Amino acid sequence: MLEKLRQLTLLAQDKPDFNQVILTALQGLLDGLGLDRCAVLLLSPNRKRLQPRITLGDNAEQMKQSFVLELNEDAIMLKSCLEKQQACWQGKDSETLPVGDILQQQLPVNGYLVAPLRVENKTIGIFYADRQTTGREISQQDFDSFTHVAQLANLCLSLAFRGS
Question: InterPro entries in the record, alphabetically (predicted)?
Answer without folding.
Answer: GAF, GAF-like_dom_sf
